[in-house]
């Protein structure tokens, strides 16, 4: 490695690491603010919070990497230009493209890292993060008793405490407990002068120790217990005085329950490119099946009109029919092969061949037995009963209608007066056919929209990685033109281009979902626009253009004014000569 390459890499790698961590931290805070209300007050362990933040930090890598490359390249080449190091390099006969080469190869390496993170790490981190976030949302808030207010966080239990002591968190004063676990109203009430509250068995249960109080129980009347309604208030009321009483409540709903992650795996952000490709193929297969069903159900829609009309299927629908028919025969293929083999084995020709093979004739001549003449057997006398009636089997010939008779019958059916039942039946059948067609079209539209969403995610994995190259081609030449280091001007310029990138990406995805443009154009539009801007900045940086100096624009304005004045003067000279 040459010294110039080492100089440029040292100027880039340090700012890149710092800016990458800063950008990840900023984006992480922005993302976590959306779930702030779902996290605070749940009494989560610090390890759970660290795990959640770690997974969301990985999710921000596709967005943080291009922005960090843009900001660090601006800082690096701005510092080189500000300290006249870039001028010294150019004076030595080294072009700007040669200076950009080592960082460009390093950015290519970062692009590969970004692609690996987008395709492998981000889907797994998203699965872990959103499943954990779902479990946190389902978790109840931490147990927090407030003075003078009823607490209803525990299922079917209401607790009121008049006073809590700051020196002893477990000590309570004037405790009231309503037990609604029997779903019979306020029939169980416990009142105590003081008490203590703490958790047991790894915070799975809440234990109350109450002192100097009363336990009230309202029981059902005897008639109500027997299922008989009686008038009047016949319920019994019991009061028990105690000096110490213990109550235990289940806190299992306050624990963080782990949900099976397979319920979240179908989301597009939790799939890599191979899985997204399989999902897209599956959706396309479903769409072709729905369209094929539409063609297959068509003969059932029309019982009279267009019944013999032929409709040619599109080639992709016909291929889907052949594919589906072949797949339907797969479970019976082995059985059909066994049946065909057995049929060949039991055929007469196979039996004769097998008999010949099993019993071959001997080579030597065999001795023949003398033929013995057999006596003819006497014929049995067959006597027929007299006067037996003869039964003749007479088959009734089928009645064949002529063409004129068929036409007359058909005309009689069509010319018959239409009654109310016939009209109602035809209308119901038409509504049913319309409903079926609309359902098929709705299903196809739903599948196509879902396919677009998966295709957008597939392209985003590549586009967000390629954005590192586009951002570098903007930042490095722009830093060489600005010649300002630090975090001031580079930070403002980076934010401006990042906003452009973000807005164009969001609008492109939105228009692609509306099927106005293709998915590839909608996702890759921001990258190609920034790439064109970067190539323009690179051209200006090679010729040492002063894009951010007032003199550059004043000179350009003067040139435009001079060109306009010259055009006006030439037009004024042409006008008198034309009049002559």
Outline the structure in words.
With 580 residues, this protein is of the alpha+beta class. Among the domains are: 3-139 and 458-549, no CATH class; 150-224 and 234-254, no CATH class. Helix content is 60%, strand content 11%. It contains 16 helices and six strands. It has helices at residues 3-33, 36-39, 46-59, 61-82, 85-91, 96-138, 222-225, 273-301, 315-328, 330-345, 348-358, 403-414, 420-482, 489-513, 519-542, 550-579, and strands spanning 150-151, 157-164, 171-179, 188-200, 205-219, 236-250. Helix 1 crosses helix 4 and helix 4 runs parallel beside helix 13. The protein is flat, with a radius of gyration of 45 Å. It starts with a helix and ends with a helix. Residues 221-231 and 350-396 have low confidence and may be disordered.
Short note summarizing the structure:
The protein is of the alpha+beta class and 580 residues long.
- Give helix % range: 55-70%
Can you list the strand order of the major beta sheet? 1-2-3-4-5-6
- List the secondary-structure elements in sequence, H or E: HHHHHHEEEEEHEHHHHHHHHH
Number of helix segments? 16
Low-confidence stretches: 221-231, 350-396
Structural class: alpha+beta
In terms of DSSP E residues, the strand content is 5-15%
* Beginning-to-end CA distance, first to last residue: 76 Å
What's the total number of strands?
Answer: 6
